[in-house]
Structure prediction request, 749 residues.
Amino acid sequence: MSSAPTVVAGAPVVNRRRRRWSRDRAYPTWFYLPAALLFVVLFAVPTFASFYFSLTRWTLFNTEFIGLDNFVMFFQEPNLVKGFTNTFIYGFLTSASKVVIGLLLGLLLTGRVVGRGFLRAVIFFPVLVSTIGVGLTFKVLMDPFHGLINGSLAVLGITGPGWLTDPKYALLSVAAVDVWKGLGIATLIYIAGIVSIPQEYFEAARVDGASWWQNFWHITLPLVRPATTTVILLSLIGGLRSFDLIWAMTNGGPGFTSDVIASVIYKQYQAGFYGLSTAGNVVLFVVVALIIIPLNYFFLRREVDR
Amino acid sequence: MKRRFVCAALPTVALAAGLGMAGCSVGEVTGGSDGGGSKGQVTIRLLVPVSGEGQTGVEEEMIAAFTKIHPNVKINLETQPGGTDGDNLTKTKLATGEMPEVFLYNTGSLLQALNPEQNLVDLSSEDWAGKITDSFKATVTTTKGGVYGAPIGTTSAGGVLYNKKVYADLGLKVPTTWDEYRANNEKIKAAGKTAIIQTFGSDWTAQLFVLADFGNVMAQDPDWAAQYTLNKRKYAEQPGLQGWLNQEQTAKDGFYNKDAASAVYDDGLKMLASGDGVTWPMLSSAVAGIAQNYPDAVNDIGMFPLPAQKAENTRMTMWMSNAFYIPKTATGDKLEAAKQFVAFANSEQGCQIQNEKSTATGPYSISTCQLPADAAPVLKDIQTWQDDGKAIPACEFLSPVKGPGMPNITVEVGRGIKTGMQGAQLYDQDVKKQAQQLGLPGW
Prediction:
C-alpha cells in the first residue's frame, strides 16, 4: 500500500512512507536477528572458513598456504572416480526408489485399507531409529555365514551372496537399507500431497466414467507434483551426501568398492590430512549445488507454468 | 488472539528448555572427569586401544597395584577401538585437548604422525628413561631428540603363526622359502583344512603379507628404508614388490578360509587355536589373545618368518613395544600422577604384572623387565632368529613414511579385486600424502 508522495514544503517525504510501511508489517525485521546470528555463526562463517582452509596444508595448529595443491591431489586420488560413480549411483538409485515406492505406498495408505493408522506408523518408524543402529543391525543380518537373511534363504535352498562382502553387491545392499529407512518421510510427504487434491476432480472423473489408471495418470500424478519435487530434491541431496549408513555397514569396503565421496573425505580426515579433507568437502558442496540448483530451478519453473 | 499467543509461546518455551537441557548434558560429558578436590585426591585417566573383549588385563592389574601404593590417586580406565578408527580418535583427542593423562599408542612412524614435539610431554629426565634399549629409544624420539614414550609390553614379531600339532600330524617341516611354504599349503588344503587364515573383517590384519616381508626386503637391500624415506624406493619395484605379489598368489591359490571376507580378528584366534586354520600371517601378540581365551592351545602355537623367495634372505621382522605417552594438556598434580604411573609400569612390580598378565613374545625394551621363566613356546622360535642376528625392525620403525590406506589396499589384493602390482602402485601414491603432511624433503 504505497501512497504518492505529497509535496509539503520542507518536510521529508520518506518519513511518512516509512511510518506507514512499518505499521503494515506484523513483525519488525529485528525478529530475524537471533536466527540470522545462528545461521551466520554456525553455517556461513564455517563454510567460508573452509574455503580458505581447503587451500592450505592444515595440522589443526598451523596452516601452510599451498594454493590448489589439495584439489589437485584430491582429483588424483585413484579411487576418486570410483567414489564419484558410486556417489551418483547411490544418490540417484535411492532417490528414484523413494519416489516410486513412496508414491505407491502413499496411494495405498490414503485409500481404504484395514489398519491404515497402524500401517502408517509402521512405515514411518524406521525414520526415527538411529542410522548407525540400523546400519550395524543390518550388517549382522547380512553376514554371509551367520546372518539371518542368508540363513532364511538357506531354508528355501538358496545360497545367499555376500551382501556386504561381494564387491558387486556391497553398495546396492547399503542402498536398499537406505531406501527402507528413508521411505517413511517420502510416504509422509506423498500422503500430504495426495490428501490435498480437491475431491471435485475425482467426482468429475467418476461422472465421466474414468478407470483407476486414468484417475491416477491424469489427476493424481499431475496434482501431486509439488510433493514429487520435494521428495526428489530432499532424497537426492541426502543420497549424494550420505555417509553414516555406508560407514556403519561397510566402512567403504570391501577395500574401496563401496566408497562414496563422503567416506573418501572422512578417511582423509581420519588420517589427519585436514586440509585435504576440507578440499574434498568443498568439492562435494560444489557438486551437490551443481546438481540441485538447476534441478530446483527446473521444477520451480514447471510449477509456475502450471 | 490470546489462544494464538499461547500456542506460539508453548513451542518457544519447549525449544528454550530443550536447548538448556542440551547445554547441560554436553557440560556433564566433558566436565565429569575433573578430579582434584579434597585431601589431594587426584583422578587421572588411562586410555587403551583394544580390538576385542578382555584385552585390558595388564592395565587393570597395574591400576589396582598402583592405587595400593598411592591411595590418593584414582585412575579411570578408558578404551577405544584400535586400527585406523582408533588412530582417528587419538589424533582428534590430542587436537581438541581431550586426551586422557596417560594413553597407550604405537611407536615409530605412527608416533611421528601425532607431532610429539607439539603434543606430548618429554620424559627424558625420568629415572627409567636411561634404562631403555637403543632400538626402543629410536622409536620414541624425534629429529630434535627427547624421549616421549615409556615402553609397555614386549617387542613382538611379525611372521607366520602356525599350529605345530597340525604340522606334525601332516608331517610338514617349517618352510624357509616361499615355494616350500606354498607346497605345505597345498598339502594342508588337500587334507581339508584352511592353509592360511585371513580375517578381512578386521582390515588391518591384511597388511601382514607386505609388512612381515619387510625383513626380507632389507636383507636384499640394507639401504631400502633410508632411501624410501627420501622417495628413492618404491613398493612397485623389487624387492618391495614381492610381498604384494605373494599375497596375490595365495589368494589365487585358494588357501584362505571360506569366510575370510567377513571373519574378524577373534575368529582368527579361534581358528588357529582349534587347528581348523593352520597358518596365519600375524603379529606374535596374537598369542596373548590365545593365552587369554584358549589357554590350552598356547603350547601348540609356533612361529616362523614369512619366507623370502630365497632361503638366505629370510628374516624375522620385529615390531617394537608400544608405549605410554603423556599429552601436554596434563599439568600440575595430574602430570605428577601420570609420570608416577608410567614409572610404576616400568618398575620391578610393574614388569612382574606384565609377565603375569600378558604373554611375552620377544625381549622387553627396558632393562628393568626380565622375561619370565615359563614363556610361551613361540618365544623360543622368535628368540632363535634374534640370536642368529636375523631379526630386523619393521618398516614403520625405520621410516616415518606409512600411508593410511594400506589396510584397504591389502584387503583389495587379498580379495582379488586388485592385482599385487596394482596394490603396490596404489600404496606408493597413498604414502605421498603422509610424507607431504609430515613435510619430508624429496616428496
Notes: Chain B is about 45% helix and 15% strand. Chain B has two domains: 38-153+320-357, 156-319+384-437.
